[in-house]
Design goal:
About 30% of the residues lie in helices and about 15% in strands. By secondary structure, it is of the alpha/beta class.
Amino acid sequence: MAVSAALPYEIGQAPPGRRIEIDVGRCAGCQECVVRCPAGALHLDTAAWMAAGEDERCIGCRQCERTCPFGAIAIQGSPSVPLRQRPPHRLPDPMVGSIAETRRGLTSWEEAWAEAARCLSCPDPTCVQGCPAHNDIPAFIAAVRDGDLARAHAVLRQTSMMPDVCSRVCDQASQCEGACSWALAGADPVAIGLLERFVADRAPVAPPARPTVMGAGLERSVAVVGTGPAGLSAAWTLVEEGAHVHLFEREPEPLGVLAWGIPAFTLPPQVARRPLEALLAAGVELTTGADVGRHPTWAELLDRFDAVLLAFGATIPMSLRVPGADLPWVEDATSFLRRARHALAAGGALADVGAGTRVVVVGAGNTAMDVARTALRLGARALALDWMAEAFARVRPDELAEARAEGVEVEFLTSVTAVREEAGQRWVEVAATRQATAFETPRIVGPPRAVAADRVVLAMGYRVDEEVASSLGVRLPVRRPRPGSTALPRRIMASGLAAGAPALAQAVAERDAYLELAARPVAERVWAVGDALTGPATVVAAMAQGRRAAQALLQARPHRPARAMSTPRVGGAEMA
């Protein structure tokens, strides 16, 4: 077996203490470890018909340990892997008024080559399974190693139409990087997100190209309801097969969560707008301010279009059911982020949030961190409270670290029990909570105490507007499986992902189940994708489902509309 070009040290220079141990009583000579080893450190001893190892070649990735079906192999010694590239977080100076991007990418080819060289080009890459879009990660990293941006883009384009967006907003730690062989061995994973961003930032993503020969979607017309990641991905796939696509957006401005839910310091507006601008340039129509289900009605849409794809997202904020939650100085995250985004983009401020203001954010997930960090940029102080334990919180580790570095106070295991105002004084009552597992609902265990607050922002998550789908006679979102109940496919078990990261393996199985669900119509000529289908999820999962549903739609028998509805208002110029 050829030795990977990405080996972290020369053959024969393995660190002292590295040892391959094979249990002769267990080894069946199946050669599973031989096939999986990226370093060529294992071979079959044909005389004894069992695996044999070369310690000097072993790099300690432990793929053989995780994939041996008989538990016959063990590796002694720590992994041998070069240090990961870690661009420093940009701390805004000054903080107030800043909308500058805080996450740096790789700044040179030298940095990109050094990081790409850490990839083992695994024979069965678990990182691909960890990515909700199933990007061919080893192939695009190999292209980076070769200095071939065009090839790297071509690989990514097979499964992703927004690598510039995903590389900035994905929680790689719970997806591709969490499934990297180095991460499963207890070492720092390859910086897949940074390499993806390097490719996307140094060469533009090519716009969707209509086929020059008859495509599967030729002459088909599709209405896509929603312009977030799921809708844009579906539209992109449909256009590349020759379909005629019309996007409908309920809000005055398009892009969904990419516009209102992610601040400019994480996702610059020009990056967020790029996919939609490319679609409009390719001939996709856009109608904003469309109350689909009422005007136009579902009957009108189904009369005019061959198919309808629902991608309207999860937009209704979760409410806080405690005394005082309806006070006028309590608002939801969507409202706050929208107001703040427009104010900061105009170089201004908010009258009710500024110097000396204390903003208490209820929640400590990714949206809560966005709210708290935005409050800092308006001149306020920010405190985020979450009733969950930090170990189980639904927040990106890097996002939490960045928020704390910028000055956000974060308290976990703290539940808000009331919002109070009396004699001109404002505060929230909180109590300590306890939570033993990720699937356990936190419970209050401590007495209440007061925390001063000038403004409260609720950032506890979102739910789907069920009325949109119910008016079509469809019940969405689908019921989520009980945590841990999804059976793991054999390919996940055999890859060693389940042995190295059981929780991630379970998440991968659930994401893949939703991908297949997205391929099935929820009603005649109607598909649903993204948050509309599953409830709140991630940008990349929504994008992957949009692509999968579009592929299934194109494979379905085409329908020819009986009549056309009146010409809609096209809002292609109304960009976020």
